[in-house]
Amino acid sequence: MTFLPRYGAFAKPRPATSRQSSDKLAPDCAGLDFFALDPGLQQLLPLYVPQAELQHFLPHLQRLGQLAGGRLNELATVADKHGPVLHARSRWGEDEDWVEYHPAYQEMEHIAFEQFQFHAMTHRPGAMGYAGTLSPVTKYAFQYLFVQSEFGQMCPISVSDTSIHLVRKFGSEALKAKLLPRMLADKLEDLWKGTQFMTEKAGGSDVGQVETTARLEGGEWRLFGEKWFSSHVDADVALILARPEGAPAGTAGLALFAMPRHCEDGSRNSYRIVRLKDKLGTRSMASGELRLDGAFAYLVGDPAQGLKQMMEQVNLSRLSHAVRAAAMMRRCLNEAQQAARHRQAFGHRVQDYPLMQRQLLKIMVPTEAALSMTLATADVMAQGYAGNQEAQAALRLLTPLLKLRTCRDNITVATGAMEARGGNGYIEDFVNARLVRDAHIGVLWEGTSNINALDAISRAVRKDKAHRSLQALLQRKLAPVQTQAPHTARQLGQALGQALEQAVALAEAVAARPELEAEVRRAASALYYASAAVLLAWESTQPGVDGRRLLLADAVLRSHLLPADPLAPPGTAMQRRDAALLAGEPLSLQQANALLAPQA
């Protein structure tokens, strides 16, 4: 494999003296250590990750933090500007439709699939020399750091990971023996990367309209049809929904298949990549359209449970999307702070102006809330995998809540960070333009905002009663805040408990009345922000965690959950709170409590 030479593409060092005053421009975060820049991540990991596991992987997280700000950042910049190219035919006129990637993308694959083994780290022991498999929290912590530089390649990483999960859980023993050794390989030349193909012209969110058919010929399944938006289009094996001939219409008739890119004899399977999509974002990664012309595929699991099986992959991808949104928000926050701290205007640092401080807070609060929510949800996932039924039910609701709100907040945060850098934020030489472009895919992949809100309220709440399990989990988190914290923090805990009850009541009311369907996004958002505020407050009571997370909990509560007079002036306590958040100095819980008191 050919890798890029180690030069600083788009990151030429500034001369010591500049006749053009380029030293007046604010620096970006290129070259910084993204793990060291994130005290929240450092403080929260010990709350969820077993000590031995964290001790083993801490050096690797630190290494990835340095890579993310350094070499990976350089590679991502280049790959975004030199996207994949589809070669439909060979020079001999033979159909081959292979995708050519820039060496920058190939080197990122080497980092992701070989150095860190993202695809396999929770499925088999041995990743980075670890004797066991990683917990979900640790896996997502690695993804969180990686995405702060490169979003596009996280799609192949995630769908390879989730494809392995589905084959392991639903595949026959023969299918697992055939596919898993290849899908879990630790060398790129041996690895079969996975993906999922669902979307068709007739069936986007309405999956029951899928027109791809499956025909059993000579004991083998053959697929016929088209897939309209297929990301990681040249994967080695694709999980795909199709309707076996004679199966009923709608979702009940869909079966799940694993379609290899190459047949056992090494020949190309009978499908064509018709073209690549010219996308707004995720330009480094190939998305395309497929025509299936009798493609060979393996049946996965029960043919009557195809959609149900595929939805496990969709939900895992939704959680991964939330992690990606949290990661991009963190990069946006870091970039906005760099710009505001180092740019001078009218004789003062931009950061010193009250309006910029307000803008930075609007970036900081959703960013920190997303971190807390993603780590806590990953921990709930781990508990669910261990057999905890309450955790399984809570995860059923947390997943669409996370997908809905983090991806929507990411768009606002990315736009705010672009504005904080000014005109340079709109120029493709800087990362902000890519962050804005990439942010928008989060509200499309794995269900739009409307689809995720409907899933949360109309299904997880109405049908599964999952809100009760989530409420019980959060009430246990609130207990130390309401009983052991200092006085003002206890009052905040009581307000959070009331807000949680109201959010649950709203979700129940909307779920119970179909005529209120237009309110599902409002109800889901209330549940998300109530959950985030509770988690932030709980974190502030834990040893080794910055008391400023109590201030963040208060900010989420007042911004999203409490009624407010839009014409009322801000109180002094809120001004003290905001100043302490912007100052960045760690606080004890007692100091944070004092800042929230009505009188200092």
Tell me what the structure shows.
This protein has 600 residues and is an alpha+beta fold. It is 52% helix and 12% strand. The protein has 18 helices and 11 strands. It has helices at residues 39-48, 51-69, 71-81, 103-115, 136-147, 154-170, 173-183, 306-342, 354-385, 389-421, 431-439, 449-461, 466-483, 487-512, 520-540, 548-560, 572-583, 589-596; strands at residues 85-89, 95-100, 194-197, 213-217, 220-231, 237-244, 255-260, 271-276, 287-300, 344-345, 348-349. The strands form 3 sheets. It has a 5-stranded mixed barrel with strand order 4-5-9-7-6. It has a two-stranded antiparallel sheet with strand order 1-2. The protein has a two-stranded antiparallel ribbon with strand order 10-11. The longest helix is centred in the middle third of the chain and has 37 residues, at 306-342. The N and C termini lie far apart (62 Å).
